[in-house]
Amino acid sequence: MSDSTHDRDRRRFLKTLAVAGTLPLVPRLFGAAPQSMLTRPIPSTGESLPVIGLGTSRTFNVGRDPVKLNDLRPVLQAFFDQGGTLIDSSPMYGTAEEVTGVLLKRTKHPKLFSATKVWTDGQQAGVEQMEQSRKLWGVPRFDLMQIHNLRDWQIHLPTLKDMKAQGKLRYIGVTTSHGRFHDELETLLKSERFDFVQLTYNLEDREVEQRLLPIAAERGVAVLVNRPFQRSGLFGKVRGKPLPDWAKEFDCESWAQFFLKFAVSHPQVTCAIPATTKLNHLLDNMAAGAGRLPDAALRQRMIDYVARL
């Protein structure tokens, strides 16, 4: 989401919770033990992942600015403290990988699921880029390596398969955040074996429900959701509008949770990866991974409600 645009609304939300003092969410937002984070299995192995992860696009592209790094450290620490494990990045995101590595050294994280991407052309360039990413993160190996926006996938996929077979990677995947790649991605998912696919899915962009999510289900592919807020578009639609009362039926206390709970309540979605630089936004996002999720009837009600705005 856009931190500058929505910071005031989230501060108001957190302040309201703190004053109320009776909501079960308050302790986990203000430092006590978190509620149990919901998890989903990775189909290819059965390993569980928390349903809320952390993206780094734009938000972690802060270079070596000491003030910004210092501001991000408690955000990442809170992510781990609230039960998060999966962090997603890419060489495409400027200095995000370097910043991730610096922050990992400054935080305590009993469990990390490291996910990044290869984003270049050519076999040797891909190998070198992945090794550079590994060094920037400071990890012995990546849990997940993804082909970013299908770039040169015919070349990179054999490399990723070999690296996985040698134990240099745990999982392999492919990503897109653009509808124009959906036809090619559909063909690729049908013809090749991937552990993960990453794609855009939210209340305003549900195109993947038609073909890609059913194929992922059929092929046993875990699904990571990027842009769960349609960047800031969904917040623009609801600005100044109260949550519907029936949102309480799935333990929802903010619009961010409304949007995230919609995404991760789809039975095929494994994990959503919202990005933020703000601690209160991070805590709000993580709260979406606890409590009840909307069922099919409530999901349709959410779709209808937002469509009318």
TrEMBL record:
It holds the Pfam family Aldo_ket_red. PROSITE patterns: TAT. It comes from the Bacteria. Residues 52-296 form the NADP-dependent oxidoreductase domain. It comes from Candidatus Muproteobacteria bacterium RBG_16_62_13. PANTHER family: D-THREO-ALDOSE 1-DEHYDROGENASE, NADP-DEPENDENT OXIDOREDUCTASE DOMAIN-CONTAINING PROTEIN. This is Aldo/keto reductase.
